[in-house]
Design goal:
With about 150 residues, this protein is α+β, with helices and mostly antiparallel strands. Helices cover about 20% and strands about 50% of the residues. Strands 1, 2, 3, 4, 5, 6, 7 and 8 form an 8-stranded antiparallel β-sheet that branches.
Length: about 150
Amino acid sequence: MLGELSREQIEEVLRSEVVGRIGCHSDGRTYVVPITYAYADGAIYGHSAVGLKIRMMRQSPSVCFEVDHMDDMANWRSVIAWGRFEELRGEAAERGMRILLDRLRPLITSESSTPTHGTSHAADTAGHTAVLYRIALEEKTGRYEKR
């Protein structure tokens, strides 16, 4: 059976997963990229070195976010949401990092699973400055298949 997820089911999918995809668009080019994330207070929190994704979201902050959970080909849930990118600084960045680390820390099981751009928003030892960001979700939809 195919169907639509309820508001509560959409929230559960967003809270339970840690890898989703951001779709951004600027200068006539669309870019979809996977991210690790935490979901809190109706927003996606992420952490990234400055690169194409950050540059595109700075230029055009309206983005799409997608996450799914798949048990098998006949049992899955998928959420698509639209929102607005916002770079976090100061206390907001500290709070965002706490949210992100609280969610991701249990998954960091070795030194090789620690992000190369560090776990703070300060410059890492290679000089890369990480960007803490939030995507405030404005619209959400979800679908499922269950057999």
